[in-house]
Amino acid sequence: MLMSRRTTLAALAFSLLAGTAFAADTIKIGVNEPLTGAFAASGTYVVNGAKIAADEINAKGGILGKKVELVIEDNKSNPTEAASVAEKLITSDKVPVLMGAWGSSLTLATMPKLEEYSVPMLVETSSSGKITTSGNPFIFRISPPSSVEAEAFEPSVKKLGLKKVDFLVINNDWGRGAAADFSKMLKANGVEVGLVETMDQSAQDMSAQLAKLKASDADTIMVTSAVDQLTLLFKQMAALGLKKRIITTGGSQNPDQIIAQAGAAADGTMHLTTFLPWWPEKTPNPEATAYFLGEWKKRGFDFAGATESFRGYDGIRTVAAAIAAGGGTDPASIQKGFWKVDFMGLNGPIKFNKSGPAGKESGQSKPNVYIIEISGGKVNQVQLGG
Amino acid sequence: MDQLLQHIFNALVLGGTYALLGIGLTLIFGIMNVVNFTHGALYTFGGYAMYLAAVALGLNFFVALPVALVAGLVLGAIIEFTLLRPLRRSDIDTTMLVMIGAGIIMQSGTLWIFGGVAKAVPTPFPAQPLTFGPVSLSYVNLFVLCAAVALIAITYFTINGTKLGRAMRATFQDHDTAALMGVNVSLIYTATFAIGSALASAAGALLGPVYVVTPQMGDLAAVKAFAIVILGGLGSISGATIGGFILAFAEELGAGYISSGYRDAMGFLIIIAVLLVKPTGLFARAERIG
C-alpha cells in the first residue's frame, strides 16, 4: 500500500515535470471529439485526420518555431461531457485553442465555455445554423451550416423533379436544424413538405418511423444522421419494402462504409457531401488531397473514413494557419489570426466571413457541397443544378 | 389500416427480442437477487461473438448462432464464478458496484479490441422482403421472431419442467431450505447466471445481423431490459415476456401515431403508470416468506 502510494506520487511528480517541460516548446491544440458513444466511428476518423495534419506540420518545422501538440479528449457523444471536456482542456491543459466538437449539440454545449474563458474553437463538422448566428465571437466554422447545404442543393430540386418531401432526422440540433433549413428552401421552390419524423441518436430500430413514412404520399425522404444509423435505416427500409428517393444531408455518411455494410439496400440513395476522395483530381486542391489520402492509406485506415477525417485534417491546418497569422500562442492572438486565414482546403478555400449579430460575429467559411449517388455498389457524382 | 398491420408486425418482432432480454435479467434477479449491470455488455458480447464466428471464422450463420449462445453461457459462468461467488455474503450494494464495474470493463474492452466502427454480420436470408399486400416482412426478422419464441419456450420448459428448473425454483423460494434438502445452491447460482447471460448473448447474436454490431449496442438494450423487468414484475418470466411485448407495442404505436420524437419515452410513461397503480409490476412474484 505504502509502496504503491509512493510510486503513484513519483509518477504524478514526473508527469507534472514532463508536462511543464513540454509546455515550453510546443503549442497545444485541444481536440474535443466523440470517441465513444453513438458517434464514436465519426469522431475517431476526425481525430485520425487531425493527427496527420499535426505530423505534417511538425515535419515541416512546426509553427512560430514550435511543435504542435494535440491534446485529445473524448466527449462520449454527450453534450454535458463535451462542455466539461472543453473546460478541462482550457483550465487544466491550458490549451489556447480548441477544435471540436463534431455534433451540433456537442458544439453548442461547449460554446458558453469558450466565452467564459475567451478561448477560440475551430468547428470542423457541426452544421446547425445556431452555432454561427448566436453571437459567439470565439467560433470559427469550416463545415457548411445546413442552410448552405440547402442552398447548394436548390438547383437540383427541379432537376430531380421533387414534388413532396418527408423528413427523417436525428432528434438533436443537427437533425432538427437540417429539417428546418431544407423545408424552408423546398417550400420556396414550390415543393410540399410532409412529415418530419425524428429518431434518437442511439436508436437502432426505426421501423415505426419507416412504416409511417412508407404510408405517406411523398416521393422523397430527406434523411439526416451519421453513418451507423444510416446503415441501419437503409437495411430497415429494404426490409419494409420502402422504395422512395432518399437524399441524406450532413456530410457524415462515409458512403463506402454504407456500401460495405448495407449492400444493395443502399443502392439508389443520394448523399450531400463536402469532399470527393474518389476523384482527388476533381477536388479544389488535388495536391493536398493526394497527400492526405496517401498518408491515410499509409497509416492503414479504412478509405471509407476519408469523407469524415478530412475535416480533422483541414481543421488542424486551419488552426495552425490562424496561429501563424496571429503571431502569438495566446488565445486572443489566435482568435485574431483566424480572421486572416486564407488557404485552399481539401474542399475549397478556407476563409472566414462574418456571421451573426454585429460586434460579436462568428467566423464561417463556405466549403463546396457535392451530391453523390450510390449505384451498383459504387459511388457516382451527380452534377448539381442543370 | 395497412399502416397499423405493419406496425403490429414490427412490434411483434421487436417484442420477441425485448422479451428475451427481459427474461435473462429477471431470472438472475429472481433467483440470485443480483441486479445484473453486465446485462447490456453480455448482449454486446453476443453480437461480437456472432461477428467473430460468422465473419472471422467463416462459420455458417446457423452454426454461428449456437456458438454465440454457448460463448455467452461460458462467459456468464465465469463471471458468476470469479465475481459473484466471492461476494455471496456481501450486501446488494457491493455486488451492484462490482457488476457496474464489470459492465464498464466489458464495454471498454470491446471498444479497445474492435474499435468504435460498427461491424456488419451478413445473413443468408434474401434481402427482398416477404410481402402480404401492403405489409412487408423481412425473412431475417421473421427468423429472429421464431428463434426468440423458441428460446423463450425452452427457458420456460427448463424452469418449469426439468430437475434443474425445480432446483432453481426451490432455491428462489428459500435457498437455505433448498440447501438443506440437498440442492447444490452454488451450482444453481452458476447455472442461473449462465442461462441468463446466454439469453442476453443470444439476443445480441440474433439482433447483431439485423442491425450492426457496436460497442455501445448494449446501452439502450440494458435500459429496455430493466424497464421490461420492472414492468413485468421482478423475477417473473411470464411477466418479462408480456412486458417485452407491451413495451414494443407502446413504442411502435406511440411512434407511429403520436410522435416519433417521444418513441423511447412511451415505454417509460407506461412504466410510471404501472408503478403508480401496481408498484410490484404487472405479474409480481410471491415474496419469499421468512
From TrEMBL, chain B:
<keyword id="KW-0813">Transport</keyword>
<feature type="transmembrane region" description="Helical">
    <location>
        <begin position="96"/>
        <end position="118"/>
    </location>
</feature>
<feature type="transmembrane region" description="Helical">
    <location>
        <begin position="187"/>
        <end position="213"/>
    </location>
</feature>
<comment type="similarity">
    <text>Belongs to the binding-protein-dependent transport system permease family. LivHM subfamily.</text>
</comment>
<keyword id="KW-0812">Transmembrane</keyword>
<keyword id="KW-1003">Cell membrane</keyword>
<feature type="transmembrane region" description="Helical">
    <location>
        <begin position="225"/>
        <end position="250"/>
    </location>
</feature>
<protein>
    <submittedName>
        <fullName>Branched-chain amino acid ABC transporter permease</fullName>
    </submittedName>
</protein>
<feature type="transmembrane region" description="Helical">
    <location>
        <begin position="262"/>
        <end position="284"/>
    </location>
</feature>
<feature type="transmembrane region" description="Helical">
    <location>
        <begin position="12"/>
        <end position="31"/>
    </location>
</feature>
<feature type="transmembrane region" description="Helical">
    <location>
        <begin position="138"/>
        <end position="159"/>
    </location>
</feature>
<dbReference type="InterPro" id="IPR001851">
    <property type="entry name" value="ABC_transp_permease"/>
</dbReference>
<feature type="transmembrane region" description="Helical">
    <location>
        <begin position="51"/>
        <end position="84"/>
    </location>
</feature>
<dbReference type="GO" id="GO:0005886">
    <property type="term" value="C:plasma membrane"/>
</dbReference>
<keyword id="KW-0472">Membrane</keyword>
<dbReference type="GO" id="GO:0006865">
    <property type="term" value="P:amino acid transport"/>
</dbReference>
<dbReference type="Pfam" id="PF02653">
    <property type="entry name" value="BPD_transp_2"/>
</dbReference>
<dbReference type="GO" id="GO:0022857">
    <property type="term" value="F:transmembrane transporter activity"/>
</dbReference>
<keyword id="KW-0029">Amino-acid transport</keyword>
<keyword id="KW-1133">Transmembrane helix</keyword>
<dbReference type="InterPro" id="IPR052157">
    <property type="entry name" value="BCAA_transport_permease"/>
</dbReference>
